[in-house]
Amino acid sequence: QGQEKLRCNPKKENGTHVVLCELGNPMKAGAQITVDMELSVSGLEDMGDAITFQLQLRSKNSPSPTNASVTVTVPVEAQAEMELRGNSLPDTMVLPTSWQEVEGSRRLEDHGIKVEHVYELHNKGPSTVSGVTLRLAVPHQLGGHILLYLLELGTEGGMNCTHHPDLNPAQV
């Protein structure tokens, strides 16, 4: 007839989280009730692609054959918006036309002007993320000549990094 808010009580039974909701007492024979439930469940990042609930309607009437249960599977979809930000320091660089690379030198200045590229990967949420892979391709040769001499690669924030084997080939 009308809409009422249910009073539900969470508790633990045999190591399982249970939510008990009282629908009404007494109910008339043949009564039909529709219940909409909204559940907030945390920690679903490692649950896979679905979560399963066991729903059971219990009657306190002595022996009731309608204590049937039903399994409901709800798909889980984590959502997170990732953002990649990058800077080059200096942001503009012009090599002098008279500059020449000094072959065999181990001094950094003899291989060009230092340019640092910094990339930041940000999770804008709402979910947390794990197992993210960022592949960054840097053109280091052009027409068989060195365009950028890749000196080092570093990370911050507990990330793992693998790099191309051409990183610092002259051991500058």
UniProtKB/TrEMBL annotation:
GO cellular component: external side of plasma membrane; integrin complex
Keyword Glycoprotein: yes
InterPro entries assigned: Integrin_alpha_Ig-like_2, Integrin_alpha_Ig-like_3, Integrin_dom_sf
Positions of the Integrin alpha third immunoglobulin-like domain: 83-171
Gene3D superfamilies xrefs: ntegrin, alpha v. Chain A, domain 3, ntegrin, alpha v. Chain A, domain 4
Record localization: Membrane
Major subcellular location class: membrane
Domain Integrin alpha second immunoglobulin-like: 3-76
Alphabetically ordered keywords of this record: Glycoprotein, Integrin, Membrane
Domain of life, per lineage: Eukaryota
Coiled coil: none
One Gene Ontology molecular-function label: integrin binding
Membrane topology according to the record: Single-pass type I membrane protein
Keyword NADP: no
Transmembrane regions listed in the UniProt entry: none
GO term, biological process aspect, one: integrin-mediated signaling pathway
Protein name in UniProt: ITA2B protein
Species in which this protein is naturally found: Onychorhynchus coronatus (Royal flycatcher)
The gene coding this protein: Itga2b
